[in-house]
Request: fold
Amino acid sequence: MTIDSNTLHNKLKTFFGYDAFKGDQEAIIRHLVGGGNAFVLMPTGGGKSLCYQLPALVMEGTAIVISPLIALMKNQVDAIRGFESGDDGIAHFLNSSLSRAQVAEVREDLLNGVTKLLYVAPESLTKEDNINLLKEIDISFYAVDEAHCISEWGHDFRPEYRKIRSIIEEIQPAPVIALTATATPKVQSDILKNLRIQDAKVFRSSFNRPNLYYEVRDKVEPEKDIIRFIRQHPGKSGIIYCLSRKKVEEMAQLLCINGIRALPYHAGLDAKTRAENQDKFLTEEVDVIVATIAFGMGIDKPDVRFVIHYDIPKSIEGYYQETGRSGRDGKEGICLTYYSYKDIQKLEKFMQGKPVAEQEIGKQLLNETVAYAESSQCRRKLLLNYFGEDYLPDNCGACDNCLHPKVRFDGKEDMCLVIELIEALPERFKLEHLANILSGVTNAMVKSYKHDTLELFGAGKDHDIRFWAAVIHQGIILHFLDKDIENYGLISVTERGRAFFQDPQELMLVEDRTFSDSEDDEEEDPGVPGQGGGGGDPVLLSMLKDLRKEVARRHKVQPWVVFSDPALEDMTILYPLTIKEMSEKCQGVGEGKARKYGAPFVELIAKYVEENEIDRPDDFIVKSVASKSGNKVYIIQSIDRKLSLEDIASAKGLEMDDLLTEIEAIVSAGTKVNLNYYIEQELDEDVVEEIYDWFREEAASDSLEDAIQALGSDYSEEEIRLVRLKFLCEVAN
Reply:
């Protein structure tokens, strides 16, 4: 079938209201209408769906669109019916959500030739009744949407997608168009091979989304940071992605009690609730959807202004597709991700028990995500390189690493050392193994290959594994090195790399960023007043820490005894100007402590706020979800009555360890308890004195881990915890 340009443009205007095609859309449509197979690689917001919707409307027969999500189908069917004001039968979906009467209606419209587009889930396509139905109609073409689901190397592999080709052969052959917003060269090859359309014309658009801003933040108090960010963008639409359903529910509830219109979306909700929540987001009855990754595929909401990843995604492809749901109209799109290596360790644990090959794939995809998160290079350059596209500018001006670049160094000799090592090895190895050899780390794998006897073992021991991993990653981006994805990421040297080794030139590289392993650590990064990377004001934080040292010297106590780090961080967010505000708003600051130490701090903050013309978020108090247990009041009252801790624990069905954790939470919130009656009865006087003196004179913080490490060989953990509580109540709080 052929169609002239005027007719095509008229249909575009009539059906969709557009005056012109975008990018390769017209070429793709002409190719498909002409009977050719097509592979479309186009970023989110590029207009993929129009590439099969318009041909379906102008061609004879019915187009079968294979799509993975019920929510996506409903959204697109509603949109098509909106374009075509005639019979609603022009577009249907066929999946498990339909009643028997609805299935009968779909069947009738198909057999009568009314339906031009039929959306089918891959699971529904395998059902014998549906196969027999589709055999009775004239099919114009098959569109395989979200085609990356075919590949085990894709971020959302679905086994049902592997059966699509055999089912097409069983129903009736017709042209196939496969579409995806994310596909590495390996995934692209898998798609073409599995669908048996190696002859397909490939239409590849740039993966660059210039309107998107990318930032990775240290995962320190992420809830508070997210609430602050959303309040700075009032009324704007956003999506927050969490990996677990439990966290989705908790986050949605937390946002609501803090005055933010939010709803959850995950597979554990019933279909009716999911559909209602999605519709409320699309119709702007709520501003924020908190969701697992299932939300947003194919949802045509152009004005999503931010996408936040509370948890790091499992792969770069998943990250790219999810961030791509922001700014689809070409306007502002902010992509924030919270990263802690602890989250990576959790994801690795989830992989245990899966087949070895699947674990290997999962770990490699996860390693790519870690490299992206921790890198100090341009994030846009890293993303595009992952999808086989080079981004030439050194600074994109729209990511955290480009706006706040790290110090660069000449890595000429380091890159040559990497190349020399790889070329010296008879076999190829993964990045981590190479980094271990250079930094002189002896582990089981290094020993098994006898690589600890190599001349180059420890040749780069002045730097750690992270440094060498960063050099190797940058070598891959510069095409000096190559990573073989088919063989789980084995590294080799390219011809370009060998040429560089023969004639080395100055090579400016950057070291990777370091992130906290826990929420107690922090990364200081003094920058612009009022613009804290992790939710606070880094310049003010630095000034408050200096003041804390002075006050601590004057009172002859450790700095953390004056105010803890979390208390100072709260001050850099809330800017308290009075002792009352400080005691009410900042965690771990009771009224007594605020009166004792607070005056110089509120004076400094007031001066800073005035000089920098900072608008104070007077209403910024993060309300927490109320505890469902009545433990706190009971514990405080029981301690006041001098009951033994064993009796208190028994009454509440707690282990002693859990009870101490509850008391520590009470004390850290600023409430004093007097445990002397119990401590005097259970602990020797000299034990109490020595532990107490350590906290007063040597401790650098109130960290229990540090105390156990320093004191643990002589004292039990329970003894340390009890004396620590006594010290916090008598001195630090």
